[in-house]
Amino acid sequence: MHIDLTNIKIETERLILRAFNKDDLADLYAYASVPGVGEAAGWPHHKSIEESEIILKSFIEKGNVFAIFHKEEKKAIGSLGLHNSWADEKEEYCGKKIKSIGYVLSKDFWGRGLMTEAVSAVIDFGFNALCLDAFTCGHFVENSRSRRVIENAGLNS
For the CA atoms of 25, 31, 33, 37, what is the dihedral angle to 10 degrees? Predict the structure, then answer.
């Protein structure tokens, strides 16, 4: 099941979740090039603006990743995507509408509750607007920040 988020905008107290656009390139590179940011999510940090441009084009074409736009700072500070889930391959979940949540946030904004705010808003949107049946989300054992986001957003049950 493909979900197109291109024309969706979700607003929270401090954030706007919206589709990425070409003007987000500098912001994407700014957070994705910092060592440790991508690695915490399972991908190597970006080594060049050209690498970020390729990823940005992919986000725009696939339409399944939100830019996390900080209202006060007026810039994209991360991404949150709705991807295919491991549960899609399990017979017991056949016929269920399930998406996996993946996210990354600029290191400068860690520890402020922003990702929990974003994930909670997307969960609400997914259940109420998209009529999803479930979400999956995971983290690396050593990524305690991501574990706390998952717990605080209620995805640990």
Answer: -140
| Spatial CB neighbours of 92, under 8 Å, sequence gap ≥ 6 | none
In whole angstroms, give the CA distance from residue 152 to residue 116. 6
Please tell me whether residue 66 adopts helix, strand or coil conformation: strand
Distance of CA 125 to the CA centre of its chain: 14
Q: What are 144's two structure tokens?
A: 């305690």
Closest CA to 138 of 15, 41, 18: 41
The b/e string for 67-89 (b: 16+ C-beta within 10 A; e otherwise) is bbbbeeeebbbbbbbbeebebee
Query: What architecture does CATH give domain 10-152?
Result: 3-Layer(aba) Sandwich (3.40)
Q: List per-residue pLDDT tens for the chain, 157 residues long.
A: 788 999 999 999 999 999 999 999 999 999 999 998 888 888 889 999 999 999 999 999 999 999 999 999 999 999 999 988 888 888 888 889 999 898 899 999 999 999 999 999 999 999 999 999 988 877 767 776 767 767 777 776 4
